[in-house]
Design a protein that fits this description.
135 residues; 4 helices; six-stranded mixed sheet; single chain
């Protein structure tokens, strides 16, 4: 795998891999997946998302929050309509990896992620469940 990565870096960026690779972020979560094969739709719900960096920094999704992602052939899935009816609006460009880096590496620029970090990755949480919907 390392040689594959070195070759891709050379081909795509004309760069060599500098230092040896090492883990930068661990993540764990519980996923529930619902599938409607007839409609070509899939819904995933990620819960109990936790991050840990090698230096000991960590972070977690608020206990009353979930990351919900829908996929469909035609665009607007049944879940998208139902979530909109509940007042949940999709958030574009949400990457669990980028969120984890933003939580565990304070020196990394995270201006675009701050609203998500503050709303969904806090210690207190709100009394009602929150849903982070992505596309």
């Amino acid at each position: 795998q390392l040689e594959f990565l070195r070759a891709r870096l050379r081909d795509a960026y004309a760069r060599e891999l500098g230092a040896e690779l090492a883990p930068t972020l661990s993540m764990s979560f519980t996923r529930i997946t619902l599938v409607d094969p007839k409609r070509g739709e899939r819904l995933t719900c990620d819960l109990q998302l936790r991050f840990a960096a090698p230096g000991g920094a960590g972070g977690a999704l608020a206990p009353d929050a979930a990351i919900v992602e829908s996929k469909s052939r035609g665009g607007a899935a049944t879940a998208d309509r139902e979530l909109r009816a509940l007042g949940v609006r999709p958030i574009a460009g949400c990457s669990k990896y980028c969120i984890g880096v933003g939580l565990t590496y304070p020196r990394v620029k995270r201006n675009l992620s701050l609203p998500l970090l503050r709303r969904y990755f806090d210690a207190g949480g709100s009394p009602r469940a929150r849903v982070l919907a992505t596309r």
